[in-house]
Structures are given as structure tokens and as C-alpha cells.
## 1
Amino acid sequence: MCGIVGYLGKRSVIPIMIESLRTLEYRGYDSAGVAFLDPQNAFHVYKAAGKLMNLEQLLAQTLTPAMTAGNASGLHVGIGHIRWATHGAANDINAHPHMGDQQEIALVHNGIIENYYEIKQALQAKGRSFVSDTDTECVVQLLEQLASEMPCETVDDFRAIIRETLQRVEGAYALSIIHKRFPARLFAVRHHAPLVVGEAFVDKGRSDEREYVIASDAVAIAPHTQRILFLRDQEIVDVGPDGIHLCDLDGGALTPELETVNMGPLQIDKKGFKHFMLKEIHEQPDVVRNSLSGRLLDPHHPIRLLPLESEDSPAVEQLEALLKKTSRLVIVGCGTSYNAGLVGKYFIEDLVRIPVEVESAGEYRYRNPIVDENTLLVAISQSGETADTLQATRQAARLGARVLTITNREDSTLGRESDLAVPVRAGVEVSVCATKSFTAQIIALYLLGLAMAELRQSADPQRLSDLKAGLLRIPAQIESALSAPEPIQAIARHFCSTRNALFIARGINFPVALEGALKLKEISYIHAEGYSASELKHGPIAMLDDSLPIFAVVTQGPLLEKMISNCQEAKARDAHVIAFTSATLDSNKAAQTFESIVAMPQTDELLSPLIMTVPLQLLAYYMAEYLGKDVDQPRNLAKSVTVE
Ligand code: M6R
């Protein structure tokens, strides 16, 4: 989703902004732009639809050293943006930064201004002319209008104008703003969209040698400094040579609490793979090892959900007490995280014997859900910034539920707002298409389920030991699943021009079918649906013919024969049925049922999603790759969905 960067300091602003925007590219975007002031304090704004490279080319053709020599204050100050279109097409004009009529203020925005239409009409009535179709432009025009109506001689005056503007704006936003009258300051605001400020001391001891980087994500700041201020909602910040000024929407002064964050620079390295997605699929064995490390020591030790160092701390006792008294779990998430939640439901209900509901966070947040103090809400989000998941979590907490988060980004809003977490240890996931984070989320849910079953003694201890032993074997089994991609490549090549596909499975692999279909849709743009195989005859069977591939996940378990019967019913309607299987199949029956069979390592059926997901990820990857799609940054999608 949109990414904001801002810089104030003594270094040349363009390279820093481009480098910072590049670290945010993984979020997904469709245009980019920058704005800065030259030595005469004139604004320069450059914007280009498409990839960041287009903006870089434009800048290379246009910029001269004189233009980029800093502004009238002797500092370099700039803002930059990658845009994910919500209001108005993805073109140069709608790209950010946006400016007011008088070209006095430039602004970048992440989020949605819900009452933009009313603000725009009121400003047009006052003679302001809008150039873009965006919701964002109304904010900068309103700032400029108020700056013409209110005193605007000092930085304090402009702070008051920002506050007045925000009183009139509804919606979700992170903003970064430059006013040409105050060239030695950079302003920013956060409200329901992430924003962080990094402070670096270029020359320790000399206060005028501070520099600041503002960004939507700490990964863009990590190359410059580890001192980070995580803004909270409704906070307004401005930075300059004399430091950080922080206040709330009423102008009340706040003390900036900077934290030292040990986050290395984002490794934007494909490590020899053609795409990040393929690299991240191949990282899964290590992700599982890492996720189990320190938590699952051996099959006979109880699961440790919290780090070793907290073993004797009250946190462990509190968590154990909570997990013992919980009578119902509600899991919320979106997209892939939602699918991981569904896998968790099968696993946890089986072992813990309490009801587990899984709900799309976007639906949950607008319902009037039933919650009590024995409900544990489990919020799953790779990014920890998904607007729907954040709001659903806050809603449940308000209603009295305890909240446990499963996120890959402990520095995210979700991670920072939660007091109970099972961190996901997937490492930074760059490809928009979630792969290794799905696997790591499932591991986190399995560990939660095992820990609860142990504490509540709700499952046979031998069964729990067997599952733990099985989990420890998973990394090697995923390695084996990854070691021979050729049959999957052949299937992908054969079917990549299909317009539709079905993914079917039973039981705990039903969510794997949903996830397989989601992967294919999002990176190849082929229409795909995931179904429980038992549902085929209730509707989808009507569309089966020899143009339709059906990808079936077939595992060893009580429903194996029923699954094969469902596949035979599809085959009888001329559909092409391809099996991804870890089951021991009768060879004659298999040959009569399946057009191709891709064998996978066998494990306990409850653990099988960890393995059966892998061939479906590879299938989607190779189909998209053969179609020449932009695998890592599929059209219209964002890695971090910070708007509703
Ligand atoms: O960061 P989150 O896990 O909260 O993101 C939720 C979805 O937007 C995300 O899983 C999306 O469906 C992925 N692109 C799927 O690959």
C-alpha cells in the first residue's frame, strides 16, 4: 500500500528518498513521486506512473546540481511517496506529492479521506481549482486555504493550521508535509496509518547535525538510524535542527519517546532466485526450524510459547492461566492470514476441544460480536498493519476479550499494541504474495494449540508427543518437497493458459485449497476457487468439462476414499484432475482417476498443510512465471493493506 518517506538533514535529498522508497516497494504501488525545495525555496515536484525506475529516469533527465543544492535554510528537505491508487487512476497527475493552488505546501498521504468530496466542494466554492482525482488533494488545498485565512508567520502558527485541518478531515491518514515558508522543518501526522520518525546524530554533540527520516515502515529508516519514534494515532510531529516537536490534535505537548530498534537494513537480495516469491518459498524449511527453535525442544518437553529468558517470569504464569481458562477462541485475519486461521481451527479444536471460530477481520469489526472475558481473540497478520485486522482486534479488546497476536512484524502497530503475542518468525517477506509467512503462522497456531492441549490435558500425551516429533521432521520434508520441481513445472506449463481452475481438498487441507486458489489468482490473474471436495456436487460440478483443471490435495486420513470418489466424479465430467498427494494410493485406482500425480512426503494429517501448501505455491509461481506476470508485485495488490 502507499509508502511515505521524508528527509531533513545535510545530505542530498534525492538519493536518500529514492533509496528509502525502494525499501518500501514491497508494499505494492503503481506510481511514485518526490518534492523538495531548491536554494530559492521554489518547489520541485516530480511524479511518474509505474515503477520507481520511471521516476528515477525522469529525475536523471531533469535535475541539475543547482536545483538539488539544498533549500534557503541550508538544509535538504524532501518528501517522497509510492502510491497505491484508491481515488483516481494510477497516472502522473494523481501520483503524490500534491500541492495547493499557490504552490506553497506539498504533501504526501497514505490512507483514505472519507469526506474529501464535501471538503473539495467547499474549497472549489472559494475559488480553489483541483487538478487531480484524488482524495488527498483536498487536504493540501485545505491546509493552504487555512494558511491564507489564519495567521501563518511562525512554525507554531502552521502547527495550529495543521491541527485545524485535521479537525475537519475524516478518515485514515498518515501525512508528511513541507511548507515553503518553513524550509527548515518537516511535518508529519499519523491517524490509523503507520508512520515512524528516525533521528540520527551525524556529528554527536552538535545539535545542528541531526538528521531525520520519516517513513511508513521502520525498514526504510533502518539504514540511517536505530533511534526511532513510533507515532501514535492523532499525533502531530515536526522535526528540524533543534529537534523533535510532538503534540496531540489539541496542541497539547507530548514528550517524544524514542526507542532503539535493532533492525538491520532490509535484505533486498534474491539470493540467486529469479523472484523473491521463489526465494521465500525455498526459505520455508529454515522458517519452520526457526519458528520451532526454543519453543519445541524435543517431543517429550512441553511447548514454550514465551522466550526462554521469561521462563520464571510472571508473564508465563499469566499466559498459562489465560490459556487454561479460555473457553472459546476467535481467530481474525484477512487473505492468507485468514486461511492460516482456518488451518488453526481444525488443529486446535481437535486437540483442545474448545470451539474455535475464524472470521474475516473486515466482517468481524462491523458486527456486534459476542465476547466475554473467557474469549481469547487471536489476531493474525503478517504485516501487523492491516486496517481491518487492527480494528477487529481493538473492537474485541473493547468488548472485554483478551487478545493474542500472531504477527511477523513485532514493530508493527498490531505488535506494539498487543501485550500477548506468539511472534511469527518468517523474516521479512518481500513478495506481495504471502508464502513463508503462511507457513510460519500455521506453526505459531500449532504451538498455541499444543501448549493449550498440554496445559489443559485435553489430548492423549502420546498423541501430542507424536505430533511434536512430526513437527520436528517437517523442515526436511519441505526440503524434499522442494527438491524436485520438474513435475510441477510441467503441469504449470500445460495449464497456464487456462482461464479457470478449481482447488479441492478435505478436512484440514480445505484451507490449503483456498490458499492454493488465492495464490494462483493473485499472481497469474487466473480465476481460481478453493472448495471442499464434498461441495463439488452442490454446484461447481455444473461447470466441469474438459477445459477445467482441478488441483486436488489428497492426504492419508479417514476421508481419503471419499476424496478419491469426489475426484472420480469430476473425472467422469471430463475435468482434468491433478493430484498433489502424500497418501498411499492404489496404483490402478489412481491411474484411472488422476491425469497427473505429484507425490509429497507423508506426515500426520494434522501437520500435512505445512507440506501440501508447498506444491500449490510452486504451481502458482510457475504458472504466473510462464505467463510473464510481475510475480513479486502483482497488479492492484499491496503487501500492507492499511486502508479498508
Ligand atoms: O499482512 P496481513 O497478513 O494482515 O495481510 C493480509 C492479506 O492482505 C494478505 O494475506 C494477502 O491476502 C496476501 N497478498 C496473500 O498472498
## 2
Amino acid sequence: MKEKVEIKKFFLKIFEKVKRLILLRSLRARLFLIILLVGVVPCIFMRYGIVDNYEEKAVERRITEVSNELMIIGNHLIANNYLGDYLSDDASVMSSRKVIDAELEILSNLYDGRIMIINSNLKVITDTYDLSEGKTIISEEVIRCFQGVNATHYDPEHGYIELTTPIINTATTGNGTNAEVTSRIEGVMLTSISSASIVAMMEELHRNALLVEMVLIIIILALAFFLANVLTRPLARVTDAINEVKAGYSNESISVPDYVETIHIVDAFNQLLKRMKALDDSRQEFVANVSHELKTPMTSMKVLADSLVAQPDVPVELYREFMEDIVSEIDRENRIITDLLALVKMDKTAQEVNITSVNINDLTEMILKRLRPLARKKEVEVVFESIRPVVAEVDEVKMSLVMTNLVENAIKYNTAHGWVKVVLDADHQYFTFEVRDSGVGIPEESLAYIYERFYRVDKSHSRESGGTGLGLAITRNAVLMHRGSITVTSKEGEGSCFVVKIPLTYISA
Ligand code: ADP
């Protein structure tokens, strides 16, 4: 059973590999094919080129050779009046005819062919095959040859070359400057020679070329395989290096400097790794901060409770005092948890904003009304200046968190008899919510960190005033969610000014 599963797995693996190769998803397969094609196609063309070229040249040469020989024989024919005397049985004529017949015989044997001499009546007067003598030949080539057009024809299928050669009688009449040369076609030689030797040579050449081609193809195949492997090796190295990081063997940046492309891939990966490390570090820091912040009130409560338990007769007043302290620590713990939940919720629901058209003036009035008791307690005067009525598309809950945090901070980090001024203004695109105070201000070196979670300039002051260090982190998240911006200017001992700028119409991502 187990074996069966193994065999099935093996075949599935092979099937997958073949499928991948067929679809050419593998770069190595593509390179292999390209190199193979670039190497093999010219080889094949070269073979056909060589053989075809040889055939053409060999036929041409054979035709020239035979034509020359035939022309010489033609001159003999004219000189001996072969065509005129072909019926004569005069002994001297017969002997010169025999000489020419022998010449024709030698030529036809030499080229393994047949020569026919045809006179102007289209009658065959000599045939080296002795088959057509006395017959009349009416063929297009012969007639055209009488008209002065020589024809050659190569039939590779049946392996012969046919050519017609005119027998020209050139006569000179008159003398001196009046000499006139006339030429007359008296007969035609119809020759067909075998091209078997050319074909045999060609076949030999073909065989040899094929052999060379096969050897070349094998070399190219091996080369293509080798090159495809070597060229894709750096990519495999990139994968190996990434896998090592993934498996946790290494945490270092990787480096595969073989190609510009691998350098780019590796750079991108290293940057991703860096970002992930930074994220991991910030998460760890956040967890550490949360634990620390949550532990502090717990430690205070434990100290308070322990000291009560340790004393046998604790006066009721001391009990009450310690219990009140414990209650305030519980409140603090609660606040931290509430803020943390708000922050986490903000991260989680980054996409889920509940946008409605909100009257910002009314919202500000409502928030200030809620915070006035705190301001009274701190003896801080809160002023609201609305430059124009503002209605904007915002998430009302998140926007009230922004406003509450800023105004609450301005009251909390203020001095007795100080003031807080809230100004609401708008242009055609954005509205601005400005909170200015006459408070303690923020030191310049701390300005860059105030939006970080749990960051507080003066820890004890912040704790006294119930701060968790999460307020501005929540505020900034909410502002960014509305595609807005938050800026701060502050001077230690003089006061701070926070300006929030939010688009009037919500821009979704
Ligand atoms: P907290 O809960 O401590 O107020 P926040 O995130 O709201 O935390 O603020 C971070 C720190 O920035 C505060 O601890 C405080 O030191 C400083 N800060 C914020 N607003 C003001 C302000 N208006 N004036 C002076 N300091 C401020």
C-alpha cells in the first residue's frame, strides 16, 4: 500500500516536471531551447546550402565541358560535310564519317550518354544508341535550336542532362574589305548525358555533411545543457539564500553578486528583511512597553496591599487612604487598557471608517463642554474661535478622539491661570483645527518622539495628570486615516500649538 503511494507520488512528480517543461515555465528550459535552436538551425541550413550549391555547380560544369566537346565535333562535322554526305558510300567519305562516329562514340561513352545528329529536315542521321536513325524528330527544343536558341535541361529525378547544340556552318564570301561572314545552322546535336556521377557525389557529400551535422548537434546539445545550467545557477543560489533565511539558519543580509538582476532581487529582499526586522523590533518594544506600563500600577497596588496585610492593627483612616490609592491605580490601569484597545482597534479597522457629514463647529462645542470641568479644576481658560462654519466628511468618533486628546493635553500640560485657544478655519479643500496653549511646552529634542506609543516628556507629570503616553499615537493614526496631517510647534516654558489639517471630502484609498 505504502509502495503504491510512493510510486504514484514519483509519477506525479515526473508529470509535473514535464508539464512545467512543456509550458516552458523554466528559465533553464527556455535557455536550453534557445541555444539549441541558434546552434542547430544554421547547421541544417549549412548542410542543405553546401549540397544544393554543389549540385548546381557540378551540373553547370558538366554542361560547359560537354558543350565544348560538342562544338569541336560540330566543327568536324561541318569540315567533313558530314550532314551533306551522310548517304554517300564513297570510300573516303565513309572513312571520315567513321572517324567522326568514333569520336561521337567516345564522347557518349565518356559521359555515359547518347548523341543524336539531326539534319535540317529534322531527320536523325546518327544515333549513338542506334535506335532512332532515319527517324524524324519533332521536338520543341530541336526546332528552337534551329532558330538559334540553345536549350539545356537538367532532370534530377531521372538523373540526366539534355542539351541541344547547333551545327553551324560559317562561310566567308568576297575578299578584302568586302568580305562577308554568313553562318547557317545545318543541323542540331541532341545530347543527353547521365548525371549519375553527380548524384553519387552529392549523396556522398550529403552523407558526410550529415555526419558532421550530427557531431555538431551533439556538441551543441551538450553546450546548451551546460550553459543553461551555468547561467541559471545564480538564480538557484538566490533561492537557496532566501530559503536559508526563511528556515532561520541565517538572519544576515544575503548577497549573490553574479548578475545585475540577482543584485536587484537580493537588494529588494534585503530591504524587505530589514523592514521585517524593524517591524519585529518595534513589536517587541511595544509588547515590552505594554507589559511595563501595565505592571507599574499592579506593583503599586501590591505594595499598598502588602503593607496593609503586614500590619496587625491598621487604623481605619490608613485603610481608607491606602484603598483610595489602590482605586486610583485601578483607574490608571483601566485607562491604559482603554487607550490600548482604542489604538489596536484603530490599526485593525484601518479600512473600516464610518464616514458621515459632520458639523465640525457643533462637534468642537460639544467636546469643549465635556472638557470644561477639567479646565476649571486646572484653572485654565478655554476659548473657542470659529472663523467659519465647517461641515466635513469624517468619522465622527475618530475625529472626536483627535479633538479631545489635543484639547485635553493642552489643559493637562498647562500652568495655573493659563489659557487654551481652539481655532477652527477652512478653505475650499481642507479644514484646520488649531489648539494653542500657554503651557509647559515640549523640548525641541522630544518633538520627534511625541507621537510614539508610550512616549512621555516628563513621565511623573504625565502620570500625575493621568497620561498613558498613547494619546498622540491614537490622534496621529486617526488623522492619517482621514488622509490629513498633524504638525506641532512648541517652545519650552511658553506653550505649544498643534494644527490638524483634514480634507473636507473624504478620499478613500
Ligand atoms: P499622555 O497620555 O502622556 O498625555 P500623549 O501621547 O497624549 O500622552 O502625549 C505624549 C507626551 O507629549 C506627553 O507625555 C507630554 O509630555 C507631551 N505633550 C503632549 N501635548 C502637550 C502639550 N500640549 N504641551 C506640552 N506637552 C505636551
